Amino acid sequence: MLTPEAPRASARIWIGPDFTTHGRVLVLGESWYGEWPDSDGRSLVYDDEYVAAYLAGRVRDPMYTRVANASGLGKAAFWQRVAFTNFVIDSVGAHRA
Question: Distance between CA atoms of 83 and 14, rounded to whole angstroms?
Answer without folding.
Answer: 5
